[in-house]
């Protein structure tokens, strides 16, 4: 197999930032999902509730070498915001059912986000130490950690699986007398790694991937949510892919697509690298 895409998301639920290469650490891809938007109760605000987050472009020196600070934020109609890593003591935040700690980015960042998202209760926080977070019992090992991903540090998606899913979507539309939609892009699934060269849904059987000497342990399939139904460009929603995944990929009440990974070492991976499966 081959690595055909590498994506970083400096801001959780922000715009996808494709890169040619990236450093891998035990906690995930360098700079991935280390910043997060929270509300006045310090709870996660994601694109599930505020679709406009998809239009907030967050870059670091890893995603754009022209960035000379820790984070640059861009959004339509607003001046760029340049931020350094926040100082001060970390404060409690809530990521779904997880109680974590993060450093507030400060009032300038909060004011910028409120203008970008049209909400007056949002704040920006930064994960200063991802090793504080432990991962899901039963699927993780001691020492596994991450910043602000939903579950595990890295996700991988297969283009072969996407092709099969798009075929199923078209078939279902024809069965219902609907016009088949345009094929979904792999970006709907916001995977860190995009691979091709294996059979559709072969990832269900993978135990590990090795890319340029970096081994990734496969933990479990990814349960998909309504975020996959949002068009990141138009911000409109539709029934797919959840409708079709529920028909073909329903496991334990969850619709599955892609796989969660945990890096078991460090190194640099590059688009075009060979991917070895075990």
UniProtKB/TrEMBL annotation:
The species this protein was found in: Nocardioides baculatus
Protein known as: MOSC domain-containing protein
InterPro entries tied to this protein: MoCF_Sase_C, MOCOS_middle, Pyrv_Knase-like_insert_dom_sf
Pfam families per UniProt: MOSC (PF03473), MOSC_N (PF03476)
Domain MOSC: 128-278
């Amino acid at each position: 197999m081959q690595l055909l895409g590498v994506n970083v998301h400096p801001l959780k639920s922000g715009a996808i930032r494709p890169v040619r290469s990236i450093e891998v650490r035990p906690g995930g891809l360098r700079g991935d999902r280390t910043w997060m938007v929270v509300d006045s109760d310090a709870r996660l605000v994601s694109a599930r509730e505020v679709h406009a987050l998809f239009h907030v472009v967050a870059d670091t020196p890893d995603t754009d070498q022209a960035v000379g600070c820790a984070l640059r934020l861009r959004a339509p109609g607003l001046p760029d915001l340049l931020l350094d890593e926040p100082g001060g003591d970390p404060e409690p935040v809530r990521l779904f059912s997880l109680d974590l700690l993060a450093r507030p980015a400060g009032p300038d960042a909060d004011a910028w986000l409120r203008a970008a998202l049209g909400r007056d209760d949002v704040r920006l926080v930064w994960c200063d130490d991802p090793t504080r977070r432990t991962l899901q019992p039963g699927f993780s090992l001691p020492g596994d950690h991450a910043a602000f991903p939903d579950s595990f540090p890295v996700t991988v998606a297969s283009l072969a699986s996407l092709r099969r899913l798009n075929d199923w979507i078209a078939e279902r539309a024809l069965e219902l007398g609907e016009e088949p939609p345009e094929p979904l892009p792999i970006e709907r699934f916001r995977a860190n790694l995009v691979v091709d060269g294996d059979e559709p849904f072969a990832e269900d059987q993978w135990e590990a991937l090795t890319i340029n000497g970096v081994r990734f342990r496969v933990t479990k399939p990814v349960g998909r949510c309504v975020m996959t139904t949002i068009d990141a460009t138009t911000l409109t929603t539709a029934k797919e892919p959840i409708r079709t995944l529920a028909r073909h990929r329903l496991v334990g009440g969850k619709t599955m697509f892609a796989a969660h990974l945990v890096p078991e070492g460090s190194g640099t991976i590059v688009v075009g690298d060979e991917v070895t499966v075990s």
